[in-house]
Amino acid sequence: MKDFICIEGVSKLFGDFKAVDNVDLEIGQGELFSILGGSGCGKTTLLRMLAGFEIPSSGTIKIDGVDVTNMAPYDRPVNMMFQSYAIFPHMNVAKNVGYGLRKDGIAKPEIKKRVDQMLELVQLSELETRNPNQLSGGQTQRVALARALIKQPKVLLLDEPLAALDKKLRERTQFELMNIQDELGITFVVVTHDQEEAMTLSGRIAVMDEGRFEQIGTPKEIYEFPTNRFVADFIGTINMFEGIVTVVGENQIQVYSDEIGETLTALGRQLVEVGQEIDIAVRPEKIFVSKEKPADEDGVCVQGMVDDLGYLGNRSLYRIRLKSGKIVQVSSQNRRRSVTRFLEWEDKVWISWRPRSAVVLLD
C-alpha cells in the first residue's frame, strides 16, 4: 500500500504544554485508519494539524507527496467531518450537501447531479427536501458525511463521527461508513475514544497517550499482542499478574507469581532474563472456569471463589477471588439456554488458561 499521508517528527506546543510529542505516522492511500485515545491524549490536536486548523511547532506533514505543513486549510486536499456535524439549520438536506459546491461556483446542473449521486450513496434520496430538525441522529450524521465527501477530497478527517448516536445505531452506522469508504476509495482518518468503534472500523489503529503513539497495528495485533501495559489495559479488559522470571526457554518463559501462588508459563517473544520482574496478562475470554479441576496439566490451573457475577445475555462475567486476594475477571459465553445460573456467589471454582493465551508485558 502506497504511503499517502506522512507525518514526520510532528510536535505541537501550547505554551509549555506539549499536546503532541514528536510523532511519526504513515497512512496508506485508501486506508481507513483510526487514532484512538482518551481525553487529552493529543488525538484531536493531531487531526486539526492534518486539517490545517493548527500549525505544528515542529515536524512536517505530507499528503500525496506534497508538503502541507504550513498550507491553509482551504488549499489542502482534505475535508473534515466535525463531531457536532455542524449542519446548517436553515437549509434542507440537498442544500446542506451541495453547500461546498455552491461556494466553489460550480454550475447548478453539475451541483444537482453530484448532490443526487451523494444522497443515493448515503441512502437519503427521499429526504432531500427535509429540514435538519426533521431528521433523526443517524440521518443527520449521513448528511454531514455526504457534505464532507461531495467535494471529492483525497482525505476525509472524522472527529468522533459516531459519538452522538445511540449504541444500536452506532453499530449499524459503522458498517455503513465502512461500505461508503470502500466504494469511494478515499483515505479516512478517524479520531475516537471508543475502542469498539476503532476496532470495527479500522484496518489499522494508532493508540495514543500523552501526545505519543504507544502502538500502531491492526486491531488484532493491538488486542492480542499489546506491546506494553498501557495498551493492554486501555484496549478491552485484561488480567495482569506480577511475577519474577524463573526460566527462559527458546520459545517460552516461566514466571513465579505470588498473586497466583504458582509458576505461570507464557510464550515469550521479548528478551527477558531470569530474576526480571514482569507482568503476565490474560484476557478474560481466554480463561476457562469450571467447578471441577481440569484434567489438562499443561496450562495454568488455580482455585478460587466466585466473588461477583453478571449476566449480559450472550455472555456471563465472573470475578474470581484467589487465595491471595487477587481478583481475576473471566468472561464465559452462554451457549445454552437456561433460567438457572451455571455458577453462584461464593461457589468454589477452578480457573485455567493455556500458555499461548498469556502475553508478556515489560513496560
Describe this structure in words.
It is a single chain. This protein is α+β, with helices and mostly antiparallel strands. The protein folds into 2 domains: 3-233, 3-Layer(aba) Sandwich (Rossmann fold); 237-361, OB fold (Dihydrolipoamide Acetyltransferase, E2P) (Beta Barrel), CATH 2.40.50.140. The protein contains 9 helices and 20 strands. It has helices at residues 43-51, 93-97, 99-103, 108-121, 137-149, 167-184, 195-201, 219-224, 229-234, and strands spanning 3-14, 17-28, 32-36, 58-63, 66-67, 78-81, 155-159, 187-192, 204-209, 212-217, 239-248, 253-257, 262-266, 277-282, 288-290, 300-311, 315-322, 327-333, 348-353, 358-361. Helix 4 packs across helix 5. It is globular and about 75 Å long. It starts with a strand and ends with a strand. The model has no long low-confidence stretch (mean pLDDT 89).
Which key phrases capture this entry?
about 375 residues, alpha+beta, Rossmann fold, OB fold (Dihydrolipoamide Acetyltransferase, E2P), 2 domains, 6-stranded mixed beta sheet, 5-stranded antiparallel beta sheet, 20 strands, about 35% strand, globular
